[in-house]
Amino acid sequence: MQKEFINQLSTLLSSPKKCVIFPHKNPDGDALGSTLALRHFLQKKGHDCQVISPNEYPKFLAWMPGQENILCFNKEEMMCRKHIEEADLFFTLDFNALGRIAPIDQWIEKADTTVVMIDHHEAPQDYATLMYSDPSLGSTCEMVYNVLTALDAKGITQDIATCIYTGIMTDSGSFRFSSTTAKTHRVVAHLLDSGIDHSKIHQHIYDSYRFERLQLLGLGLKNLSRVEKLQAVYMHLSQAELDACDFQKGDTEGFVNYGLSLEGVKLAVIMVENKQEEIIKMSFRSKGDFDVNTFARKHFNGGGHVNAAGGMSTLSLTETKEKLHQIILQYSPNLQ
Ligand code: 5GP
Ligand code: MN
Question: For a tag on the chain, would you pick the N or C end, based on fewer CB atoms within 10 A?
């Protein structure tokens, strides 16, 4: 992390500020973990902070310390706009393109307020006043840890550690992705020393399925197809299948990884129909040097990281599947 970033951030925080902290739409463990950790820290330092999420987050995150104070823009727009108008400082965490918080982006652009970005995705957009961007790090939570400990070496409380651990664990696939370093483990060791119950955090996230969610996974696995002769698989879930399993936000989180668990497979994709938004939401996962960030950016209006990215399609589910299949064939040499 650049010293200059910390110096400038310290200056910004040298007097009490009204802050609004934004995670991206459909926040995951890293987005919520990083925003909540930062809020706990800043509140303790005498700042007034509000986390505003573009929309709701899944139930398996609804136990995190401080989550009860989050405002959702899609449900409490007036209250959120008041906070945004009155803020001295915005933090955008775990995303680097303002479109990821639409429709809040228009209020940020209007506000002319200082924006601090902390994020680990590739190719940051140029909207922040102060930016800490490092795509080599596995999670925004690890970056927030770096920031908080640089500001105050003794500033990691148990609640902060719980939030940061959650984001590091979820974004690293429980410490198995290649972005997990010795330094990541040293950070985690410090978090454990701060008194967190890591086993309970794991249970909250991974052992909290409803029966219907497991059945939905079964439907997804039944729909798994392999592209002939290539190390690529994809699965889909239609709105009807989601409805049959009483779909709730976050239910399909992690499903795409089952495709990647097949021996030799380099690319796994899931397509989930969303009739309300009239889109097919897509998740891409890869192993090795098959770059799904570029793949998602180029073909499905998305982005992310080399081995984990997301995107969307406005075609029908059947057409999206066909389009994906044809595009995968173009990448045959890389998917042998
Ligand atoms: P997931 O597939 O778990 O939703 O997301 C995987 C990664 O891709 C995450 O880092 C997430 O922030 C990013 N991502 C997911 N959807 C989109 C999208 O529509 N656009 C962009 N730019 N990134 C996305
Ligand atoms: Mn992240």
Answer: C
